[in-house]
From TrEMBL:
<dbReference type="InterPro" id="IPR016461">
    <property type="entry name" value="COMT-like"/>
</dbReference>
<dbReference type="InterPro" id="IPR029063">
    <property type="entry name" value="SAM-dependent_MTases_sf"/>
</dbReference>
<feature type="domain" description="O-methyltransferase C-terminal">
    <location>
        <begin position="124"/>
        <end position="334"/>
    </location>
</feature>
<feature type="domain" description="O-methyltransferase dimerisation">
    <location>
        <begin position="26"/>
        <end position="100"/>
    </location>
</feature>
<dbReference type="GO" id="GO:0008168">
    <property type="term" value="F:methyltransferase activity"/>
</dbReference>
<dbReference type="GO" id="GO:0032259">
    <property type="term" value="P:methylation"/>
</dbReference>
<dbReference type="InterPro" id="IPR001077">
    <property type="entry name" value="COMT_C"/>
</dbReference>
<keyword id="KW-0489">Methyltransferase</keyword>
<dbReference type="InterPro" id="IPR036390">
    <property type="entry name" value="WH_DNA-bd_sf"/>
</dbReference>
<dbReference type="InterPro" id="IPR036388">
    <property type="entry name" value="WH-like_DNA-bd_sf"/>
</dbReference>
<protein>
    <submittedName>
        <fullName>Methyltransferase</fullName>
    </submittedName>
</protein>
<keyword id="KW-0949">S-adenosyl-L-methionine</keyword>
<keyword id="KW-0808">Transferase</keyword>
<dbReference type="Pfam" id="PF00891">
    <property type="entry name" value="Methyltransf_2"/>
</dbReference>
<dbReference type="Pfam" id="PF08100">
    <property type="entry name" value="Dimerisation"/>
</dbReference>
<dbReference type="InterPro" id="IPR012967">
    <property type="entry name" value="COMT_dimerisation"/>
</dbReference>
Amino acid sequence: MATGEAERGAAGAPGAEVPQPGSVVQLMFGAMAARTVYTAVELGIADLIGEGESTPEAVAEGCEAEPRSVHRLLRALTALGLLQERRQGVFALTATGALLGTSRPDSLAAFVRMFADPVMLRAWDHLGDSVRSGAPSFDAVFGTDFFSHLKQHPALSAQFNASMSQGSRLAAAVLPGAYDFGRFRTVVDVGGGDGTLLAAILREHPGLRGVVYDTEEGLAQAAGTFARAGVADRASCVAGDFFASVPEGGDLYLLKSVVHDWNDEQCTRILGHCRAVLPPEGRLLLVEPTLPAVVPPGAPPLMYLSDLNMLVNLGGRERTEEDFTALCRAAGFQAPVFSSLPPPQAFRLIEAAPAD
């Protein structure tokens, strides 16, 4: 049998994988879909439609845009599952689309703004460079690292803090009841930003005290978060650099979505500072997704795209259980114990005790 005939025979064999060109085309339109959602937030589409229904003409008047173009935008948002066209030319939000409204406590509008911001996306134009070099492209594009850039741009820093807060709310809703915080006296949330997660933990555990530790820029909204949660009397804000030290006095050191921002050497330094001040009975708790050792069929792409985002923008990475175990041991901890938050959360709880 000729080579071409063999290939055709294999492709036609029962159970053989069939090429899906439509899937490739859909993937290539992914950036356009993200920009469509960003534009909906930028124009305030969800706020303009509200809980009722609206027409393109009314929405266009509210955002000072051209009605026919707004109609086209609304149709695209409908196809993306964020709106529904109840009858011709009359649109309403779906439950998912309502998350783009700015007044909801579970809003994701700031998250959308940040992750579709040109600052987040420009380094992605140089993904190939990062793959070749293993280094973040952000530094070359902007002349400084990501967090130094935020420090130089207060408005962008505030937007980043808001997006991180929105991204933490789902975990904050389940983590306080999914881990035994009650056995500790003081939790130090290292890199805890505006205190969203710590406030939820303290609210659920009234006998616990807490410290949120971050840069001055990262802490800018934390005091307000604690006041609104009614836990300001048990929470404090400490500014500093976790590459230099972490505050003493905690018996639980919590890091959520921090480790993936940094390379192994940087992570070992951060975790080593936690180990240096942790009492023998204390614990380290990391809250991060973990990658499987082998990519399973049908794996959700989100964590792998996040891994590439860490590569191009920050120089960090998503890690496997084996990677986390190596990090903990290098920083003076025992092999960690892994558990999972309830679905649909993808985060894992990674608890490590000090090594002898």
